[in-house]
Amino acid sequence: MKVFLLSLLIAFAAYLIAAVGGYFLIMKWSSNQHDRSMEATMTSAFILGPIVALLAFIVAYLTLRAH
């Protein structure tokens, strides 16, 4: 149970880092002129954040369980 909860904590931190970092990267590189901030917000919150969080959870769980 301890490994699972620690993995969830790591996944949450990874979500925050990916969402904030993705927002700024999309704001910088997007060619969208109309709704750049909306595109950055939605993509970061619903695409980048969850994907990175899921990957971080899997890697953290497998790594912590092995030790």
**Tally of domains:** 1
Average residue pLDDT: 96
Number of strands: 0
Shape: rod-shaped
Poorly predicted spans: none
Helix amount? over 70%
Strand fraction: under 5%
Rounded to the nearest angstrom, the distance between the terminal CA atoms is 14 Å
Helix count from the secondary structure assignment: 2
Q: What Rg do the Cα atoms give?
A: 15 Å
Largest sheet: none
H/E element sequence: HH
Structural class of the secondary elements?
A: mainly alpha
Mind explaining what this structure looks like?
This protein has 67 residues and is mostly helical. It has one domain. 88% of the residues lie in helices and 0% in strands. The protein is rod-shaped, with a radius of gyration of 15 Å. The mean pLDDT is 96.
